[in-house]
Amino acid sequence: MIHFSKEHQLFRETVKHFIARESTHYIEQWEDQRVFPRELYKKMGNEGYLGLTYPETYGGSELDFWYTVILMEEVGKIGAGGIPMSLTVQTDISTPPIFLHGSHELKERFLKPAITGDAIGALAITEKHAGSDVSGITTTAREEQDFYIINGQKSYITNGSIADFVITLCRNSMSDSEVSASCGMSLIVVPTNSAGFYAEKVYEKNKIGNFCCDHAELTFEDVKVPKENLLGMAGRGWDMQMEQFQHERIIEGILMCSQAQTILNLTKAYAKERTIFGKPMIDNQSIAFALVNMETELECIRQMSYHCVEVFISGKECTREVSMLKMKAGKVMRQLADDCLQLFGGYGYLEHGPISRLWRDVRASAFTGGSIETMQHILKRFL
For residue 182, what pLDDT is reported? Predict the structure, then answer.
């Protein structure tokens, strides 16, 4: 099946030119400064890249989901994983819950400026003792007249210290006897200028990769948020977030394929240039076969990602397929990056080499958005 029309291909070319113009030459600077360039959001918003599928009413372009696929594939070719990691939180992780479950007022206040690049969003679920096991979160939202009073901490939050709003999963103020571990949760939009909200960049110098992507620990101390900031129904946050995970994991699968292809292309080019035992590395049968095997594995994952997109667009249940994609792509990415670094030898071990940066950055793919082990836990239910 042909997934991309001529219009899609023209769009791909415009994205390529934009990336070459606005990011490629600045990666080293952003990595060294360990900062995500906020101005890049505004530039992408001006081009319409932050709201491809959203309605024109809120500043979107109302395009089909394959345009998002193209954007992810091209953004994944950027030589630093921190850029796509931050951008996908904006385009496909923090804004979909507002569009799907938010009131018109919330869409005007938060979705619209996020699409134009005037506001940055984040999603706060993970806590130090509740990562892949979302049911273990302890951050609470207590009802008090017309407000929610939020208390707790969130950890490893992408865009946490640069965000203007944070979609926060909280446990409602109900006793354990009233709700099960996975029920009684709500998704609430928290403006980051709220009193009692603190974001600390405690991971800035401790991360092993994705340096130019912001990660922060968030603290909520009696943060007072109007009840109007609730997404959907109170107590249904778990269901909404589980639904959103399918969208997020498809995006991550597409992104991993693109990043893996970038690593593989770098390796193939190096294998053609590097001479060993009097001939190019790629003429060595064992190396050529290794590259062929990686290319084949990667193509299988790419086609699976396209299948998941089709099922997702059709509105059918796709938890099984998407979990398989996330699990397999995470495994392939991790192994491919390691095998390619090995072929670079000493050059691959240099701090500022393109392959070493990508090797560090993509390692997170095996656990962000749901670890490989969590996907296996989900999939065992389908046996």
Answer: 59
Q: What is the pLDDT of residues 304-326, one digit of tens each?
A: 999 999 999 999 999 999 999 99
CA distances from 227 to 74, 145, 244, 382 (A): 39, 9, 22, 38
The upper half-sphere exposure of residue 281, i.e. CA atoms within 13 Å in the direction of its Cβ, equals 16
Length of the chain measured in residues: 383
Phi, psi of 44 (to 5 degrees): -70, -35
Same domain, 79 and 185: no
Cα dihedral 69/72/75/80 (nearest 10): -150
Q: Which amino acid is at 166?
A: V
Q: Which residue has the tokens 């989901």?
A: 65
127 and 109 co-located in one domain: no
Round to the nearest angstrom and report the end-to-end CA distance of the chain: 29
Is 248 part of the annotated catalytic residue set?
yes
Is 189 in contact with 167 (CB distance < 8 Å)?
yes
Question: Tell me, what's the pLDDT at 239?
Answer: 92
Same domain, 227 and 210: yes
Cα–Cα distance measured from residue 157 to residue 165, given in angstroms and rounded to the nearest whole number: 12
**pLDDT tens, position by position, 270-315:** 999 999 888 999 999 999 999 999 999 999 999 999 999 999 999 9
Residues 150 and 171 placed together within one structural domain of the fold: yes
The Cα–Cα gap between 60 and 51 comes to: 5
SS3 content of the chain, % helix, strand, coil (to 5): 55, 15, 30
DSSP 363: G
| CB distance 86 to 213 below 8 Å | yes
Q: Which of 217, 248, 297, 321 is catalytic?
A: 248
Local structure of 312: helix, strand or coil: helix
At 326 the pLDDT is 97
